[in-house]
Amino acid sequence: MRNVILIGALSAAAICVAQPSQAYEGPWCAYMSAGRDFYTSRCDLPNYEACRAEMGGLPGTWCTQNPRYAGPPEKRSRTAKKKKRAK
């Protein structure tokens, strides 16, 4: 009985601490035909070669640059900005 309570408490703690994941957008998208007019896509590929490898030469597949990719995140400078004093 003690083990059940311990497992429940640990599970509750893990749920409370867990943060939502963020989707990664890479610079390349792989599109795959899934029948008729339905296509699936995967837009987390780092380069064209990885995209072609993902496709495996299957018919009805192609790679294109990701229109939603914004580039790598900007690095913040470590210099502190001075606040102006009110006179």
Provide a descriptive summary of the structure in words.
It is a single chain. The protein is α+β, with helices and mostly antiparallel strands. The chain is 28% helix and 21% strand. It has helices at residues 2-17, 48-55; strands spanning 28-33, 39-45, 61-65. Strands 2-1-3 form a three-stranded antiparallel sheet, covered by helices on one side.
Describe the structure in brief:
By secondary structure, the protein is of the alpha+beta class. The protein contains 2 helices and 3 strands, in the order αββαβ.
Major pleated sheet: 3 strands, antiparallel
Strand line-up across the major sheet: 2-1-3
Helix content: 25-40%
Q: Report the average pLDDT across residues.
A: 79
- Morphology: flat
